[in-house]
């Protein structure tokens, strides 16, 4: 397992991390324990969670399975940042996360999204104070636009506050827009990059290309809060055709490969990606990735062909989670 240092901090994260959106919900305690055990055996140390996952259940489940293993992991958690969420909210949110996680410090704490109402100075001053108090070791930013990240840095610089060490955002073969502004920016600012959505919520596994599957797997789009009709509009022939092309590339260039393997090989080939946060709603999905992907080196041919085939996916608006036209 390779590790990447985040910014100027002393925090090192494994190139793969565990996403816990389904922990305490679709993934029960026993499976969470199995996934964590196997992940640690593979050298994975980054665990990504949020206070909003399962209304706190994800953090609680993690708190239970991390007993006796806390010092082996880097916990990244987030607070749901929105208009009401000012200094008092963040101070209460961090205490609640610490309690659920059964720990006395968080390694990386992040606003889940930029706030539309709370001044960014108030958020940054609060995060800086939390670092000084030792409740968090560092903080990052999640789903921020490039100009917002640059502004955060400038404000921290001006005030002598701790700076964010990483940015977390969506990045995959179908959504490459971060390559335009975010990637050059994080390199320039020496920030880590944590990416989610490697499989574009399962789309890159090719499951929607199986006849009739778009009818019975629409729950994968649940977080977009769209109606079924709205969700199905994303599954256009052009998009499904591209996934089919990626399936062919995976089959042709990676022994035993497919579009899912290709999606990970491609991300792993990007040196600016500090860690790929793995997702899954079932234990076997994580275990399958551990077995077939985590130890593999990216296939250079597969990466070049996939890069070329998806080059136009760079040219779309940068999205955060709230922008519904995900594809
Ligand atoms: N910062 C943020 O705003 C943010 C946003 C989203 C996620 N995240 C983090 O990133 C993690 C991963 O995100 P993601 O869930 O969107 O990742 P993803 O890799 O794009 O999607 C994973 C989903 O794909 C489906 N899938 C189908 N076949 C699979 C297979 N063989 N192996 C694995 N997954 C398969 C599963 O859903 P079904 O079983 O339902 O089909 C699974 O939950 C989350 O757990 C969370 O920690 C962060």
Structure description:
By secondary structure, the protein is α/β, with parallel strands linked by helices. It has one domain: Alpha-Beta Barrel (TIM Barrel). It has twelve helices and eleven strands. β8, α5 and β9 form a beta-alpha-beta unit. The model is unreliable at 214-226 and 322-327 (pLDDT under 50). NADP nicotinamide-adenine-dinucleotide phosphate binds next to α11.
Topology summary:
Layout: E1 3-5, E2 12-14, E3 16-19, H1 29-42, E4 46-48, H2 57-65, E5 74-79, H3 87-101, E6 106-111, H4 120-133, E7 136-139, E8 141-142, H5 146-159, E9 166-170, H6 182-189, E10 192-196, H7 213-216, H8 228-232, H9 237-253, H10 259-268, E11 275-278, H11 283-292, H12 300-309
Parallel strand pairs: 3-4, 3-11, 4-5, 5-6, 6-7, 8-9, 9-10, 10-11
Antiparallel strand pairs: 1-2
Helix pairs in contact: 1-2, 1-11, 2-3, 9-10, 9-12
The structure holds NADP nicotinamide-adenine-dinucleotide phosphate.
What's the rounded overall pLDDT mean?
88
| CATH homologous superfamily identity | NADP-dependent oxidoreductase domain
Number of separate helices: 12
Structural class: alpha/beta
CATH top level is Alpha Beta
Could you say what the CATH architecture is? Alpha-Beta Barrel
CATH topology: TIM Barrel
How many structural domains in the coordinates?
1
Characterize the largest beta sheet: strand count, sense, and whether it forms a barrel: 9 strands, parallel
Please report the distance between the alpha carbons of the first and last residues.
31 Å
Listing every helix as H and every strand as E from the N terminus to the C terminus, the arrangement reads: EEEHEHEHEHEEHEHEHHHHEHH
Portion in beta strands: 5-15%
Q: From the alpha carbons, calculate the radius of gyration and give it in angstroms.
A: 19 Å
Give unreliable regions as ranges.
214-226, 322-327
Helix content: 25-40%
Strand order of the largest sheet: 7-6-5-4-3-11-10-9-8
What general outline do the C-alpha atoms trace?
globular
User: What compounds sit in this structure?
Assistant: NADP nicotinamide-adenine-dinucleotide phosphate
Number of strands: 11
